[in-house]
């Protein structure tokens, strides 16, 4: 009777439990909804539950007993010979017929579980769940047990492999997410608002988004989706929003949408987010290196909070590098290991890796606040030394030679200082503004510095030369009329020679303009003229007749040029009006908009 009931039962393909044919349909509706409510990202899947084995009979005799109970069936040896031919397939893929018919094969009962000796029947309760491990904890455990060679030789860049998952390991942005800050309190309470993360490359924008994702996965409070504006389209965004609406309606779970390089989306693409951010369907987190005032839609910007992430300081870079060195098992020369020596922690066949403190300090200073550049430079230097030919030689005690990363190795990998400069972005306008204001303040050293920042960052020298020509007239003006000649000559010389030879010419012109006396009377006077024209009420006054040109007889008959006094023919001063009658006596060098 038990065998008959067992053979007539149907197995649920979701939870792998047995049900009668009359109740399986109702159970499937309930089981599918309950499985959709569970967050798939809160735990690492460990495989389907182990199938139950009938307790009434031994495993080895189950096939033979069932075949002997029915006359005309094959013997157990023939049945086992059939399974032996596909034994390799059974270990990889379970018998599909058992899912639909409810019959189970004792051979595949343990194909998804751990290896066991099939000498006796084992009963596995159906209510037991396998323990789950979160993604962050699993990654942390893996990184803690992987040797340095494995992390350094992996395909992932070191900056990606060691990306932190908690705010405790997030360095350099204490003003934004430090203790007692509003944003940190919101993140810890899972009340995450829509954010725009603005900062230079390598300051931690993407890392902060990953930390938010890790916190959301651990608490199961939200679903986190990542898109990159460099490759995603509007259809991809609409698909994510549609899934977010379903998640919110069916599972009551929010969706956090992270858009990397959000400034790559144009205005119409950014408008796609507006109604869904407004009603709370998605929580938008955008990362950008460009000024959001110019690159992000104003309507979208008003619905998000802008977090300005600063360039990482040298101290923050030192903390990041120390964390990386500890994770890789690299010992800093001159420092005593906190636990046990690196030789005891790793296989004795691998060489011990050491690094000089000066080498870490060099990375912290030369990476220019870019953590990605600093970590990848460390990885490059260590990898180069690990593949050195001299490592094939052993010491007299039989151990491989030690690897020592020095300051020279770091400088060789970096070649030169990594200068942050974008010729079409925010840093471009910041540097040219600093150069202009330094020359206006007659600070020749600061003028040379900002000029060097621009030229060494790859700025077009002709652009700088054009700005110097403008400065010569705007800020020096009549105080030194030869300054304009100097600036124009510098522009022509840069056009003839080009970089890098023209850098000295630009430096000479910048210092000359910084040392020159300053006068803005021309700049202010012409500004008054523009204000006069803009503020004039009614039609503009006509040109006086005596100032008009009269090339034809008709114009002369109409009074054009009548009464005009030709100054070179006069021996003395000439009394003659040159302004319109409404503006007679106006002095634009002392004029103010309220005068007229």
Automatic annotation (TrEMBL):
Segment Disordered: which positions?
38-73
Q: Name one GO cellular component term.
A: nucleus
Identify the keywords attached in UniProt to this record, alphabetized.
ATP-binding, DNA damage, DNA repair, DNA replication, Metal-binding, Nucleotide-binding, Zinc, Zinc-finger
A GO term (biological process) for this protein?
Answer: DNA synthesis involved in DNA repair
UniProt lists compositionally biased (Low complexity) regions at: 56-68
Where's the UBZ4-type domain? 9-36
Q: Does this UniProt record's set of keywords contain Transferase?
A: no
What molecular functions are annotated in GO for this chain?
A: ATP binding; ATP hydrolysis activity; DNA binding; enzyme activator activity; single-stranded DNA helicase activity; zinc ion binding
Entry similarity comment: Belongs to the AAA ATPase family. RarA/MGS1/WRNIP1 subfamily.
Name this protein carries in UniProt: WRN helicase interacting protein 1
Origin species, per record, is Poecilia formosa
């Amino acid at each position: 009777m038990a065998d008959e009931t067992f053979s007539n039962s149907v197995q649920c393909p979701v939870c792998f439990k047995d049900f009668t044919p009359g109740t399986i349909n109702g159970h499937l509706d309930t089981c599918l909804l309950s499985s959709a409510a569970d967050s798939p990202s809160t735990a690492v899947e460990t495989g389907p539950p182990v199938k139950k084995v009938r307790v009434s009979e031994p495993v080895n005799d189950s096939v033979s007993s069932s075949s002997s109970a029915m006359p005309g069936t094959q013997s157990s040896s023939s049945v086992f010979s059939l399974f032996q031919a596909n034994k390799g397939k059974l270990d990889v893929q379970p018998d599909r017929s058992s899912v639909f018919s409810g019959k189970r094969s004792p051979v595949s009962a343990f194909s998804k579980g751990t290896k066991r000796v099939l000498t006796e029947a084992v009963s596995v309760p159906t209510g037991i769940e396998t323990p789950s491990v979160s993604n962050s904890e699993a990654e942390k455990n893996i990184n803690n047990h992987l040797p340095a060679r494995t992390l350094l030789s992996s395909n992932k860049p070191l900056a990606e492999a060691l990306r932190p998952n908690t705010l405790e390991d997030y360095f350099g942005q204490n003003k934004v997410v430090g203790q007692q800050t509003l944003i940190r309190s919101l993140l810890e309470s899972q009340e995450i608002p829509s954010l725009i993360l603005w900062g230079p490359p390598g300051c931690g924008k993407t890392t902060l988004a990953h930390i938010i994702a890790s916190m959301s996965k651990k608490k199961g409070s939200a679903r986190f989706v990542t898109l990159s504006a460099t490759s995603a389209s509007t259809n991809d965004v609409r698909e994510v929003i549609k899934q977010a609406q379903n998640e919110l309606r069916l599972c009551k779970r929010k969706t956090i949408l992270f858009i990397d390089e959000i400034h790559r989306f144009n205005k119409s693409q950014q408008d796609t987010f507006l109604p869904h951010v407004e009603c709370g369907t998605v929580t938008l987190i955008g990362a950008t290196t460009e000024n959001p005032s110019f690159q992000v839609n104003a309507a979208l910007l008003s619905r998000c909070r802008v977090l300005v992430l600063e360039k990482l300081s040298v101290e923050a870079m030192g903390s990041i590098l120390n964390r990386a060195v500890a994770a890789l098992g690299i010992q800093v020369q001159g420092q005593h290991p906190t636990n046990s020596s690196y030789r005891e922690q790793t296989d004795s066949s691998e060489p011990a890796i050491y690094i000089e403190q000066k080498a870490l300090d060099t990375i912290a200073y030369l990476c220019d606040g870019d953590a990605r550049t600093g970590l990848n430079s460390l990885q490059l230097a260590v990898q180069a030394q690990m593949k050195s030919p001299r490592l094939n030689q052993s010491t007299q005690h039989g151990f491989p030679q030690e690897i020592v990363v020095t300051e020279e190795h770091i400088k060789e990998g970096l070649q030169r200082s990594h200068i942050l400069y974008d010729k079409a972005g925010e840093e471009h306008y910041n540097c040219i503004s600093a150069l202009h204001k330094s020359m206006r303040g007659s600070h020749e050293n600061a003028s040379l510095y900002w000029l060097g920042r621009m030229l060494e960052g790859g700025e077009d020298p002709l652009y700088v030369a054009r700005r110097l020509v403008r400065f010569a007239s705007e800020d020096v003006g009549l105080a030194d009329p030869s300054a304009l000649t100097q600036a124009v000559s510098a522009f022509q010389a840069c056009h003839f020679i080009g970089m890098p030879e023209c850098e000295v010419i630009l430096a000479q012109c910048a210092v000359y303009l910084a040392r020159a006396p300053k006068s803005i009377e021309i700049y202010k006077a012409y500004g008054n003229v523009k204000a006069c024209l803009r503020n004039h009420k009614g039609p503009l006054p006509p040109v006086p007749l005596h100032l008009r040109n009269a090339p034809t007889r008709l114009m002369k008959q109409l009074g054009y040029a009548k009464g005009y006094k030709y100054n070179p023919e006069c021996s003395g001063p000439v009394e003659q009006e040159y302004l319109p009658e409404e503006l007679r006596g106006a002095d634009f060098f002392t004029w103010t908009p309220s005068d007229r």
